[in-house]
Batch of 3 targets.
Target 1
Amino acid sequence: MSGAPTAEVYRIDWLPGTDVLHGVCHCGAERTAEDPVELWEWMLGHPNGHRPGGNRPGTEHDPADHRPADHRPADRRPVGHRKETAS
Amino acid sequence: MCVTTLARMTAFARNQWYVAAYGREIGRELLGRTILDEPIAFYRAESDDTVIALADRCVHRRYPLTAGRLDGDTVVCGYHGFTYDTGGACVFVPGQKRVPRTARVRSYPVVEQDSLVWVWIGDPALADPGAVPRAPWLADPGWTTVGGMEPIDSDYGLLVDNLLDLSHETYLHSGYIGTPEVAETPITTEVDEGAGVVRVSRHMDDAECPPFYARSTGIEGRITRWQDIEYHAPCLYLLHSRIAPVGVVPEPDGSDPDAFHVEITYAITPSTDRHVYDFWAVSRDFAQDDEEVSAFLHDLNRTVVLQDVGALNLLQQALDTEREGYQELSINIDTGGLAARRILARLAAEGERAAAVVASP
């Protein structure tokens, strides 16, 4: 069952002419990788390692941003993420 | 590239709507379908033509109700005559006046929309008819649709994987819908986590025209071919296909009078852990009254679907011989399929949690 569009959109572009994938989280954080499994893990780990306003492509996870209490993919709700986006 | 270990089966997502049948399949004969391991009997009520869905097992000795008969709005079990109304309540038992209070079979919420019959698998109290995803062209007189259903003897996750990565068209469906450009063209993948939708886009600016489109549209020469997938997990898959001569793009106002549009709809309905219903439909906004085009698109798409059926049956047989904890490798073309798998896992977990809440005192 799908619902109405939400603000919690993750995007991965396969950059033409390369093997590189470019991921953009709904919070603005970005990252590039050549492995879709790794890129989804990073992306869906939001907000762990994400910097609202945009990470530099290819930057590593930042331990300072590691918030295990918030990192529960199964419990994510769009409402909580709107708050992240607005911050 | 990453090697990952696979589970033996894609978990079922309960508390979801699933396509059970085309509306045209259900009438005054009982139709049996097993959905998420639940055998269900479907029929139309005589009084108001609505679709009724009841558990396909008589409460008495578990005899399949689909082996019985309809009597007006009721179903009569073919073994001992237990008779059920449209809500599943038993209204007659043989040889006695008192019908036991517990004599009832489960009834399922149903929505008939866009020519499809959807059934809710899960807690009926949570069923929201407004949440059934739409495929309006299936019942729109401005479009002409052909379709069918083919069962596959595989985990439904294999079909999701197949449809989310269309690069396989180049190899499995070459000469029908596949051309070299499909596998060569990079994709864009979006996941709307809150809505439970995965979108995969592949826009080919200058591509060979495969027979499926050359013969149906009459285009000669190379084409601009856009494939925009919307997967409304867990069941509905939409492929918005745009075909036009090379260089022809939509107008600035968004209209697109010089292109051909084909809406390819799939409903992926898990039956058992090794059986899935593959509903497919092809809708077009051109040559609507041309029966030759309809027959051609029907036959060719069914051939393509049967190629998938053969491949997935074979793949499942191969996977079933693998040792526990077997591994696979994912590359860029799998970006959409990986996203779909994760959403399915989340929906399955949410369904499990809801069931646990209902079961707890």
Target 2
Amino acid sequence: MSARDTIIKEKRGNSVGENQNFPSNTQLLGALARELKNPLILIARQAELEALNSSDASFASIQNTAEQTLKLIDSYLLLAQSEYGQVKLPLETIGIGSVIYDALEEFRPVAASQRINLISDIHDQTVETNPKGLKTALWCLLNMALESVEEKSTRQIMVSARRQRGNNVTVSVLANLEVSRSEMSLARKLQGNSHLAIALHSKSSGVHLAIADLFANAAGDGLHVARRGSSSGLALRLIKSQQLHLL
Amino acid sequence: MTDVLIIEPSKELALVIAQALARQERSSAIAHTSQSAIEQADKSTPRLVILELLMPKHNGLEFIHEFRSYPEWLNIPIVIYSQMPKEDLGVTDSILEDMGVAAHLYKSSVTLDELIKNAEKLLE
């Protein structure tokens, strides 16, 4: 019996269309993501080496693009593995200010090069969340915001953390993302995900939003549309820590 | 004696690392598998090993186990430069230290510059 016959037999033998010998779509996507990292690492490091020998700025740009894509892949892998229980993202009590500060610092050079002002409005809050997951979600939202800020807008992105009613702290990334509640709602109903509607307003596929949504779902009730004044964006709710903040 | 033994399954990436080391006037040897790495170290003892953990047949941890079984190579520092994040390794920092691993650097986020700086510190 050939390998192909064996595959066909195994596929037919399973009424739900799944077989231990065949990875699920998510596993396949994970394997594909890992596979893509090899050439991206090579591109990033080769570009870095070329940049040392050349004054051509395009090598640094290639390096940066490859590294950002690697980070996007790692973000996807972390949250997808967490959703499927392969990785644990345990809750910790953390001060949200430092997480937001670190995220903003990372984006400051690229924001400055695009003449976008990054500001924060943090009412120092301690929350119960996983710092790695939150960092990943914030990285994705900031990435998306940077891609989506329109030329005509105020060119400003604000990250805020505010206590809401009850025991929630809302972390918002606000720019002028032009996302309406109805778009988000419709996209979720139709697709089970929110990223397709957003993709219409983003230069990218909206994958950053889908990844942030994975974390927001794990941490609470998913991403939701936020507005403040003329700014709009996306927010996630975290649980306020009941522990006393030790100084 | 070779300054650095680069154990890296990707031929292209191994060459990039070797070229970056050459800029610092460091000599290097390249091996693409654990087996050829042992043979290479036997030909010319390295002062430092840069190691990818994810390799066909025998992985990087198996290489360390074998490498450390020879007394003359016991004190040669190893820098892991891998696609596998430290958290996925399933070993603690103290175990890595016991293995003589001087640093674990994650390929996705650690630049060539940082890798070479780490290597230079250990070669000084």
Target 3
Amino acid sequence: MYDTLLLLALLGLPFAGAIAAGLLPTRARNVASALAGAVALAGLSLVWAAYPIVSAGGVLRADFAWMPMLGLHFVLRLDGFAWLFAGVVTGIGALVVLYARYYMSSDDPVPRFFAFLLAFMGAMMGVVVSGNLLQLAFFWELTSLFSFLLIGYWHHTAAARDGARMALTITASGGLALFAGVLVLGHITGSYDLEVVLAAGDRIRAHPLYLPALVLILLGALTKSAQFPFHFWLPHAMAAPTPVSAYLHSATLVKAGIFLMARLWPAMAGTEAWFLIVGTAGLVTLLVGAYVAIFQHDLKGLLAYSTISHLGLITLLLGLNSKLALVAAVFHVLNHAAFKASLFMAAGIIDHETGTRDIRRLSGLNRPMPFTARLALVAAAAMAGVPLLNGFISKEMFFAEALSAEAPLPGLLNLLPLAALLASAFSVTYSLRFIHGAFFGPDPVDLPRQPHEPATWMRFPVEILVLACIMVGLLPAATVGPFLDVAVRAVLGPEVPYYSLTVWHGFNLPLLMSVVALAGGVALYRLLQRRLRSGAEGPPLLRRLQGQRIFERTMVFLSWRLARRLEGFLGTRRLQPQLRLIVAVAILAGAGAAWLRGVGPGNLPASPVDPVLALLWMVGGICAIGAAWQAKYHRLAAVILVGGVGLIVCVTFVWFSAPDLALTQLTVEVVTTVLLLLGLRWLPKRFQTPGERGPEVLTRTRRLRDLALAVAAGGGLAALSYAVMTRTPPDLLARDFLARAYTEGGGTNVVNVILVDFRGFDTLGEIFVVAAVALATYALLRRFRPAPDSVELPEQQRDQQETDTLQPERGESGRVADWLMVPFVLTRLVFPVMLLVAVFLLLRGHDLPGGGFSAGMVVAIAIIMLYMIGGTDWTEDRLRLRPHLWIGTGLLLATGTGLAAWAFGHPFLTSYFAYLDLPFIGKVPAASALLFDIGVFILVVGATLLMLVALAHQSVRGHRATPRPPPAPVARERTPVTAAGED
Amino acid sequence: MELVASLGIGVLAGSGVWLLLRPRTFQVIIGLSLLSYAVNLFIFSTGGLRSGAAAILEPGEAGSIAQYTDPLPQALVLTAIVISFATTALLLVVLLAARGLTGTDHVDGRERDR
């Protein structure tokens, strides 16, 4: 419980703080920074509270079932190694917050800054305390995302936007690779749990998928830690506010890659591939970063490249496959975090107080800002590896490792000490440049601001960090020793090799190398004076090596040229080619499958052909082809022919023992036909003029091609259906449904039981779709404007009115418009009968063919018949229809039936059934599924009516839009309106 | 019998595809209707075509596939019928609105450039 609470608080606090900070008003700088500081300090004290357990070799662990069926758990886990990083994240976080309070201008929306910073802290904490690799990958991407927001905080500058985008693209792509790698790793070990994976090191290394997993995971780690060749995003990220650089780009974000490599070190390191990839990347980064850093003119740029170089050093140490090197790597992570964060802060102070970070413009700041100068001096000396400071000790360890490394390539190993020496000399040079360039020399001239010491509290975090550098440098074993030990033991287990944390190891080779590096660095700085003063941009030799340019070219190519070319090649805004492509691909896919696996008649003998059905289908085929033939010029004929096909389909359903389908098909057929008829009125007239010139050659070719496609599709589907029908159908689900329909669903109509009970959730989704379609139809038609040539009354209606006007003597009952009197009376008589039929269908649906869909359709048909025969106005005067209300009620009832199951402690849509004895009616199945079906029924009525009525109303609106004809002499208060279907 | 049914499905599908590739919206809507008949019949046929099989269970009895029709394709097709009705309605309204806005019933909203 203690573990759980502590870990949850550690992870949750920063996120909660982020949300709180995000809600603060824009100008609340002090409140936001106090909040952020409190969160960071609370985190730090939580980390400290965990120390007793962790230092005793214990592990805090909290396990939450997430998807236990898939073996996925949300695991928080804090061992010594994670503890050390958690301490860095919260500790440096607290210092950065204090610094940022003074650094950020009150003109900036500071609460947002702190919200991002805290969220980043939470994400970083998530990476550190994840006990599950998938979860780690998730938080990993989250850190990329928040670093994007932080780098782009000053989004009004192009540099910030570009830097943020570049950082996100590189690190998030790396994160995707990491995710893939984690999946492979999970596949190898069978678990994503960190402890399982760490314990399975031998199995992982021996597995054939080891190399892919390694490459993918390292892609993630190396991009995040800005290793060559992915290093170039880090200098561009310097467009971020300096507190961000101090936090993300020295202590936390870029160390995430290091963290991951060290975390998985027991599971994945120790192979030749690891040495080659990690070691080489580290070595190249170490040298290139240090070399380029010398020639940077921007203070932060210099620090960025030096960070790259130091990250390379740590990576190289991890790549050496030696336990002592791992100790040195972890130690250097701490040291680097301390001195680099303080140097970034110092650079920020200089920028803040002078208005520039350009070394060429700065000089002699030692006089106006003596305290800052001394702090920076110590920190830079630590970076250069000057004795009695923390950097010196880890550098000595590095030299010792470089001298004693064992690895498969002897050539590379001989180079290693030399490379280490060279990189150290470079680091001396750039440290010297930082200090000498900014603080010494003549008084500065022409600075944007008059330099002076910063606010005391702004310097405070630097002081703390520099103090740490000195203390660790003087008394390493007494200060950082226990913590380092805890961390290293968590990674390496009990067999931690002996290492000595002392300043003085006697006169040995590493010491000699240190002295040589110091001297060499100073000499190099003197030698380079003229070049550096000349102010030339970029380092010599490597100027052309610009990862950024390659990156940008790639981005332009991918997101612009390639996309455009692909669009030009494949894209079209025309529907026909798209549909043609879809059909062609479908045919090809089917043909390909048939080609590969073969298709042919199955095992069942074909049943004898019934002449009646054959005749019916002959009619059906003729109807279909006729509809295809006539749909262009004779739309009404096409609608009728399609209706014919529908009827044949309906008969086929009856024939092959599917009464429910037949019933639904029949009712849907009627409604669809009415809908299409209502729509015909608004389509343009198209006449086939006799003697017209035949279609052009191009059109004819197109038609031939389409015909070929249609024949291929039809033939293919026919062959496929034949092959399917002559095989024994699989009955797995059918058997299950048939066996359980009555005993568990309480109905004998299995189809209906499936719809309202077994697969009730599908039906619920479906009725939501129907409701959405109905509302969309309604909304579209509300804004409907008919085309100008469809506005005037159709010819037939004009004729009617004209006749009525010309022959007033025929009287009211003899009007042409009322010629449908007999059907009108019949419809009114049939109306209640139809409603009764609907209720009948609804109630018996669970046991006999029927159900909510067909019953709802029947009601809708009954009402639309009134509309068609009686006219819109007549019907609406007598029936108050509120289709929206019906839709809402239906949805509520259906969903409510589902929800009611919760009240009884069952899953959503669990149904209950019993048979009730009602007087007069008899035994009625009273399943809760019936209620659900009633909901479906109400919805179908509402939705269908809404569509039909909305469309039917267009005729009325269309008439009203036109100037009314002069009032007919026949007295009648309403204009006769017939449904558009008559047109 | 299977031959008749599959030929019927083929003819329906072919006519539907032909209409689907035509330039007028009304043709497309009719084509979709025909195509959905064909596909519904096809799905239905995966349960096997049996005339005279019982579709309704005897009360109190657990049915078996030997005497009863396969209810699963039927349930699927029933859903498909309703959904295809909804799409037809939506398509119809969209094409009417497009015709009102653009003045043409070409599927692209403008006549093909000649």
